[in-house]
Amino acid sequence: MSSMQTRWRFPLVLVLLVALAASCAAAGELRPITLAEALETALEHNTSHALFLWEQDLAQRRAALQKQPQLGAELHPAGLQNGTWQGPHGSLSLTMPLGSHLKLSGKVTVSLEDKELGIEPQGSLNLDYDFFAPAQEAAPELTVEESRQRQVNSLVLQVFRLLVDLRKALDQRAYAQGVLEHLEAKLAAAQQVPNYDDLQLRRELRDQRASLAAAAERVNQLQLQLQNVLGSTEPIFYEPQLKVHSLDLEFSQEELEGEFLAASPELRRAEAELEQARAQLELERKSRGWQVKVSGGVQAGQDLNWSVGLTASKALYPRDVLVEELELAAAKAEHNLQGQENALLGELRSSLQALTSAQRQVGLLGELLAAAEEDLELRRRQQAAGLVTDLQVAEAALAAEKARFDYFHAQLDYALRAAELWQLCGRDLKDALFQVVN
C-alpha cells in the first residue's frame, strides 16, 4: 500500500499545484462585487432605467401642463389671396382651463396694412355641462411614485438574479475543473499500473472536458449579461460576493394578503371597471335615460355676444333592454374582479409554498453537507493510518465541495424566492433584500 501511495502522490501533488496556480491567476482577473455595489452601479448607469426615469419625469411635467394656460403664436409674413397682396399679420392666443366644464380663451390679432398697424382683440368663455354624465377621467392604475418603485424593484431583482446565477455558474465551473483534475490524476495513476484498462477513464475525461467547456461558456454569457445590466462600458469580469445571513424569516398569508392585493395594477383596473359600470347603471336609473345639458358662452370682440341654453334628449331605445345591458356589464365586471382576486391569492399561496420548499431544501442539503464533511474527515483519518490512497481522499474532498456548493446555492435560491415575494407585495427591494442577503 505504501509503495502505491508513493507512485500516486507525486503526480497528484503536481496536478494540484498547477490547478492552484491556475485558480490564483483566474481569481486575479475577476473583480469582486457585492450586492450593494452592483445595485448602486445599476441604478446609476443602467440605460433602460435612466430612460424610464426620463420618460416618467416628462410625463409628469406634461400632465401638470394640462392645468396651466396654453400660449400660442401664429405669424404670416406675407401672402397672396385672389390676386391681392396680403400684408404681414399674426396672432397671439391664450387658452386657460377654469375647471372640467369651463374654458377661457383669448386671441389678439395684429396686422399691418398700408403702413397702418391694426390690433383686434377678442375673447370667449365657454360652458358645457352634462348633468348625468359619468366621470370621464379614471384614476391611474399606478401613481408616478409606484411606477418608479416597480421599475426600481424590477431592476434590483434582475441584478440580484444575475448575481445569483453568476455565483452558481462560477462555483459549478470550479467544481467541474476539480472533477477534471481528479480524473486526470486517476488516469495518471492508472497508467502506472501495467496492463491497466483505462478506456473508461479516458471516456470520462473527454466527457468532463466537454462539461467544463459548457460551464465556462455559461459563465461568459452571464458575465456579458451582468456587464450590460450594470452599464459597463468596458469588459469587466465580476465575482459576486454574496452571503445569506437569515434563513428563518416568517411569512404569513394573512399578513401579506392586504399588501399583495394592493400592489396589483390588474386588481386596481378591475376595481375601476366595476366602479364605472355601477356608476353608469346608477346614472341610467336616476335619469331614466334622459341626457340633460346646459351650455353657454360669452364672446367679446368688437361686440359683446352671449348665449345660454338647456337641452334634454333621450334615445328612442327600449329602456328595459338598456338597463339590463348595464346590469350585465356590472355583473361581468364584478365577476372579473372576483376572478382577479382569486388568481392573486393563488399566486400568493404558490409563492409562499415555493419559499417553504426552498427553506426545507436548505435544511436537507445542510444535513447532506454535514455527512459529506464527516466522510471527508473519516477519509483523512484513514489516510493517516495508511488505509486509503490520496485519490480516495481527493474524491471525498470533491464530494464535500459539491455538498458545500449545493448548500450555498440552496440558500441563494431561498433568498431569491423571498425577493420575488417582496416584489409582488410592492415592497422596496433596495431595503428589503438586505434582510436576508449581505
Give the gist of this structure:
The chain is α+β, with helices and mostly antiparallel strands and 438 residues long. It has ten helices and ten strands.
Task: Tell me what you see in this structure.
The protein is built from ten helices and ten strands. The chain is an alpha+beta fold. The strands form three sheets. The chain has a six-stranded antiparallel β-sheet, with no helix packed on it. It has a two-stranded parallel ribbon with strand order 1-8. A two-stranded antiparallel sheet has the order 3-4. A hairpin with a 4-residue loop joins strand 5 (89-97) and strand 6 (102-113). Residues 1-28 have low confidence and may be disordered.
Question: Count of helical segments?
Answer: 10
- Fraction in helix: 55-70%
Model regions low in confidence, pLDDT < 50 over at least 5 residues: 1-28
Give the count of structural domains: 1
The count of strands amounts to 10
| Secondary-structure-derived class | alpha+beta
Summarize the biggest pleated sheet. Answer: 6 strands, antiparallel
Top-tier CATH class: Mainly Alpha
Q: Which value, in Å, is the CA radius of gyration?
A: 37 Å
Identify the strand order in the major beta sheet: 2-5-6-7-9-10
- The CATH superfamily turns out to be Outer membrane efflux proteins (OEP)
Mean pLDDT: 82
